[in-house]
Design goal:
43% of the residues lie in helices and 20% in strands. Helix 1 runs parallel beside helix 7 and helix 1 runs antiparallel to helix 10. The chain starts with 7 loop residues before the first helix and ends with a strand. The structure holds S-adenosylmethionine. Keywords: Methyltransferase, Transferase. InterPro entries: SAM-dependent_MTases_sf. One of its GO terms (molecular function) is methyltransferase activity.
């Protein structure tokens, strides 16, 4: 059971976060992460976490259950397709001969190109994959899908409620909308303090997504959490910057590392790991 009594390390973490907040108060925003290095740094970050595997396992089985006929998936903010390729491969393998249509939406053309190339490299006859280079708000989609999936991408949309409504409208009746997003837990408390604002809004975390679902009246079938861990102590500066979603200055790196150390828990190998949970929201289109 979780203890509600503050431990010395949670008090240290809170004090370090306050210090960082004080240091940033009134300062110019830190530089944002750049699109050309984003996918590379993201991949390096994910290699230090067990979250990708947990997401892939969780999604693969559920998507495969959406039927044994032709299956279509829309992945919004698909990035370089690392996760989607794994899911597509699993779907093709789950029911041999079943046609699988996989569509990505991704604003950064470099990542979108990698998505298409990786899907093609699977060499699966049953799989057709394409990507639209656009933000979700600008994307024009004139078909519906068995599943519409956002994995770690809804943080960046300008309007959550509009996004959820548009996304559900792209799900065929009986199909599902999946939104996987991080809570504002220990790791993302840093993002809140350090990341520059995105087009006039901060990054949306799970509580914002839950409120937006509620405001739209979309009924959720499931809200669950996958408890992952990420090992950041040995990580280089680029991974650290990805973790806080900003290019840190050299002076900020030491207190950020001290904070991450304070919020760490022992992993299976006994080494310190930062909790890296992801929340899963699922709604069925009626
Ligand atoms: C953290 S990455 C996740 C990529 C992929 N879904 C995965 O899990 O590996 C977030 C992705 O969302 C994309 N993105 C940012 N703003 C977006 C928007 N307005 N609409 C759609 N995608 C967006 C980014 O370019 C990036 O590829």
């Amino acid at each position: 059971m979780t203890s509600l009594v503050p431990t010395p390390s949670t008090e240290v973490a809170a004090a370090l976060l306050d210090d960082l907040r004080d240091a940033r108060r009134g300062a110019a925003a830190l530089p944002a992460l750049q699109p050309d290095s984003y996918a590379r740094d993201h991949a390096a970050f994910e290699r230090r976490s067990d979250q990708r595997g947990l997401i892939a396992d969780h999604l693969a089985g559920r998507l495969a259950e959406l039927g044994d006929g032709p299956l279509s998936v829309l992945s919004v903010g698909c990035g370089d397709g690392t996760l989607d390729v794994r899911l597509a491969e699993g779907l093709v393998r789950a029911v041999p001969g079943r046609p699988v249509r996989y569509v990505g939406i991704e604003p950064w053309s470099g990542s979108a190109g990698l998505f298409t190339a990786e899907m093609a490299a699977l060499g699966a006859r049953e799989l057709s994959a394409e990507v639209q280079v656009a933000s979700f708000a600008d994307a024009v989609v004139d078909e519906t899908f068995d599943a519409v999936v956002f994995v770690h991408s809804i943080y960046y949309v300008a309007d959550l409620e509009l996004t959820l409504r548009k996304a559900l409208a792209l799900v065929r009746p009986g199909g599902q909308l999946w939104v996987l997003n991080a809570p504002r837990a220990a790791l993302n408390a840093l993002v809140d303090v350090l990341a520059p604002p995105l087009d006039d809004h901060r990054q949306w975390f799970s509580s914002d997504v839950a409120e937006a679902f509620h405001a739209t009246g979309i009924v959720l079938d499931e809200i669950s959490t996958l408890d992952a861990l990420v090992e950041l102590a040995p990580a280089g500066d680029d991974v650290l910057d990805f973790a806080v979603q900003a290019r840190l200055t050299p002076e900020l790196r030491r207190p950020v590392r001290a904070y991450l150390d304070a919020v760490s828990v022992p992993g299976a190998d006994g080494e310190p790991h930062v909790p890296h949970p992801v929340d899963v929201f699922v709604a069925t289109r009626l």
